Amino acid sequence: MWLDTLIAVPVLGLQTVPTFNSMFTYPERLQPMLDEEIVRDHEIEVGYDRAGLGLQFRTKSGFSYKITLDNIVVEFAYLPREKRTPGRLPSQELPPLQRFSALADATVAQMAKLLSFVGSQEQPKVIRFGLAVSALLEKSKAPPGIDDLIKHHAAFFKGDVVKSQATFLVNIEKTNSHTDRCHHTYAFDDMEKPDDLAVTLDWQRVFRDAVQFSGSIEERLRPLKNAALAYFERVGQGGLKDA
Known about the structure:
Elements: E1 7-16, H1 20-41, E2 44-48, E3 54-59, E4 63-68, E5 71-76, E6 81-83, E7 91-93, H2 100-118, E8 126-138, H3 144-154, E9 163-174, E10 178-189, E11 196-211, H4 217-237
Antiparallel strand pairs: 1-5, 1-8, 2-3, 3-4, 4-5, 6-7, 8-11, 9-10, 10-11
Helix pairs in contact: 2-4
């Protein structure tokens, strides 16, 4: 998978039917999970989101969790670690890089774990599932599909495009039960950071009627994750127009 060769991180989000009653019980429901994280890491950051309408916390493992009135999000980020060497000032270093596909699997597992606590009384009703990836790469080494996308847009102009930021939301497939779609975003600035390219793909399944996950939550989430990864791979390979 082309994303496995890059610095790429996942965000998994569920848009849910708003329920005020459940929101006020989330801190109590999540207490066992928070206690478990504290025992393991001896440290955890907990707080309310900026609007004050939800709870968020982050662990030393790099995962952060956010539960609001209508969204449940699990996100991974590489957290710098302080390195101390005798006789030298402390320095920051990143933890070992992981394959994106492995991080996506771990994020699904974390979401399933979170839902097991959040939905201890009743699973939330899900309107939309989304899995996004943000990646940094060298523009000169972009995979064929990304390279073709940029060149196709640049072909509109006579001169060289040296800075761009573009986003496209595309409906991929519609069925009687859902619509699959994806936000495609890329950005580069050859004047400030030559050859740097940022790519974000946000695959979503929007359900016609809200669904509640039952049984093994991870087993319900995994096919959605697989569909997203399969589409990300097609974007990298190119030829989406002819698929």
